[in-house]
Design a protein that fits this description.
about 280 residues; 9 helices; five-stranded parallel β-sheet; alpha/beta; 9 strands
Length: about 280
């Protein structure tokens, strides 16, 4: 029996994900308290209904019960029940937009602030995310693409999806990211900070992107970096690495590093790698 545990950020698409698995004949259960996972798995395993594929959503909606997740995972391992964890994530900006569009409160926004709820949830899910087998970033992702990603994992078994790539922009003035595997310094590129019309914008804005990428040096660097990563990533996969953090830094982590990170993310995504972008110092 295959057990898939779907978890992740509220609003990141867990409900849509379990519907996709249901469509490919997984027996699905939404919002299952983690403490019940071992019993539920055993029930499915011993069922006369011949249940081979099972998917459950276990997330922060379980409140205090969510803290039982790691104990339940250990119990599953002790019982010899194999499982895979699918973690759904999205940028804070995208999650805030989705909650506002739906006019629903975040499950942890006790004060009524969506941003505070998201921050608390990210902290609560840090360890679960590290243990996850697959991470899908649904930022700006349409339902059709999410379905394609899930089918690639659970039907096609595409090897590129066994590597989760995080591209992290950062500012050297705030220190190197401790979790980085590869670090690239882009402080040699022209700095929009010294352009009055661009200083208050970021690498997420078109005018800054056009300025940074308007120099031949930027295009050449990005092309060479992309080609090197195309060579390296399959080798990391071959060696069994499941998570790779590529850190790209400039002075403040707001303009050049953000621009290059966004462009590189798009290029690797087109190669069917799952990429999560984290602009670490954007709000500092």
């Amino acid at each position: 029996m295959e057990l898939v545990i779907i978890t992740g950020m509220s609003g990141a698409g867990k409900s849509q994900a379990i519907k996709v698995l249901e469509d490919i004949n997984y027996y699905c259960m939404d919002n299952l308290p983690p403490a019940l996972l071992p019993n539920f798995a055993e029930l499915c395993k011993s069922s006369s209904m011949d249940v081979n594929n099972v998917a459950v959503v276990a997330d922060i909606r379980g409140g205090i019960f969510f803290k039982d997740l790691f104990n339940s995972l250990k119990e599953l391992e002790n019982k010899g029940i194999k499982y895979r964890i699918l973690f759904l994530d999205a940028s804070d900006e995208d999650l805030i937009r989705r909650f506002k569009e739906l006019r629903r409160p975040h499950p942890l926004s006790y004060t009524g602030t969506i941003t505070d709820g998201i921050a608390e949830e990210r902290k609560s899910l840090e360890e679960v995310k590290k243990k996850s087998d697959y991470i899908i970033d649904t930022t700006n992702m349409k339902l059709g693409r999410l379905k394609e990603e899930i089918l690639n994992i659970f039907v096609k078994g595409d090897i590129s999806f066994n590597l989760n790539v995080t591209i992290m922009s950062f500012g050297y003035k705030y220190g190197l990211p401790k979790e980085s595997d590869l670090v690239f310094d882009v402080r040699f590129l022209p700095n929009p900070f010294y352009i009055d019309q661009l200083k208050d914008f970021t690498g997420n804005d078109k005018n800054v992107q056009q300025y940074v990428m308007g120099f031949e040096t930027s295009s050449i660097f990005l092309d060479k970096l992309f080609k090197m990563l195309k060579f390296l990533l399959p080798l990391y996969i071959k060696e069994g690495k499941s998570n790779l953090v590529i850190a790209i830094g400039c002075t403040g982590g707001k303009h050049r590093s953000v621009t290059i990170s966004n462009y590189l993310s798009d290029m690797l995504s087109e190669e069917n790698y799952r990429v999560l972008v984290n602009h670490r110092d954007l709000g500092k």
